[in-house]
Amino acid sequence: MHFPAPLKSNSVKIMLLGSGELGKEVAIEAQRLGIEVVAVDRYANAPAHQVAHEAHVIDMQNKDEVLDLIRRVNPTYILPEIEAISIDALFEAEKEGFHVIPNAEAVNKTMNRKNIRKFAAEELGLKTSAYRFVSTFEALREAAEAIGYPCVVKPVMSSSGHGQSIARTPEDLEKSWEIAKEARGDASELIVEEFVRFDYEITLLTARNEKETVFCEPIGHEQKDGDYIFSWQPAFMSPEALSKAQTIAKKVTDGLGGRGIFGVELFVKGDEVYFSEVSPRPHDTGMVTLITQSQSEFALHLRAVLGLPLEFTFFTPGASAAYKAKNESVTPIVHVDDKAFSKDSFVRIFGKPESHEGRRMAVLLTMAASETEALAKAKERIGYLDDSAPVTRVVEEHRVESEESCVIKKVFKFIFG
Ligand SMILES: Nc1ncnc2c1ncn2[C@@H]1O[C@H](COP(=O)(O)OP(=O)(O)OP(=O)(O)O)[C@@H](O)[C@H]1O
Ligand SMILES: NCC(=O)N[C@@H]1O[C@H](COP(=O)([O-])[O-])[C@@H](O)[C@H]1O
Ligand SMILES: [Mg+2]
Q: Which domains does the chain have, with CATH numbers?
């Protein structure tokens, strides 16, 4: 491939629609290859704005504003980085010949739980939790009765756990209804899901450049309030579960098509693998690849977008811990103890201009001889970043790992290493 210089009439230009911590790392990778970066978000001085050639602040849900900016910037590639973007603008841009990553229809399917669930379960025939869609409280009650308790209630359009709750009894439904309504995005419709008592959950990062598809080592993660707090790589899986996970990821990403990295979220129970959802972009749990791989998920995303080879090396087991702000502040400070900068750990501070309770502001990364050790270090050292907020856990049940599944895991580990 030829790499024209940035800021010229013939530059290769990427436009990030969303400029948070994930976009910031993509922008840095693009800068390393001399690709011109235009970063867009709904607020000023977003993380990727600070490392881009050009920064814009617009209402990303407004079709006209998004389209007008796309036409003015004339990017080679448009990279959606968040879900809350005017999908009509992306469809229109694609019609006008712009290259949306991975493509507008894939963005459309994945931004709405109804579309992706129907696609995965009904079109591709993948195993998922039982589910129903509802838009009235009465229908929510009926769906919960049919699916059984506990069940998980989520707005069809939301991310990072916003608006999500578990109803354990019929009495919880009113609260779940209120939580969902308060969430951002289009909360007019909800999905009610069977609560899957999985042994563990993973993200399988899958990159495709339309010539080849590659998988990263599976990433294990722990969630609090529907948002990730710890991730580690590799996540131990039985060979059968790993093979099923890769088959599902290949089917889903081939079905969505286009170029880029995808975060395929899966629940694993024994050797059964359930498809949960997929992000057509780097995944927050995948920040661990900043320390574990020669090419992080961000570098792989960019390579896939540009149609470059997707070769990389898995360097070392590692883990990540999300640092969440405790307070609201327009002058936020992340206090980091020097010990976080030891030979086997480092920190990435996103530079978000404002904090509010629970907002992810930084990530701590650790490496070790095993993922268990790396995770233990991450859990211990996240305390080196001050006031990391203890948030109450939504999916409390998952903490209780059955003795049986522990024994099975140990046996597999003994046999397969
Ligand atoms: N049906 C379910 N059964 C059991 N646990 C679930 C279920 N749905 C969600 N969870 C738990 O809640 C977490 C968040 O759910 P989900 O990924 O659907 O939300 P999200 O808002 O899209 O989050 P993100 O944007 O961070 O991926 C899951 O990773 C899992 O731990
Ligand atoms: N699970 C999706 C995810 O992690 N997205 C990442 O968080 C940013 C928004 O953060 P903010 O809400 O703090 O502005 C997004 O821009 C993206 O980088
Ligand atoms: Mg998710």
A: 13-100 (3.40.50.20), 130-194 (3.30.1490.20), 200-416 (3.30.470.20)
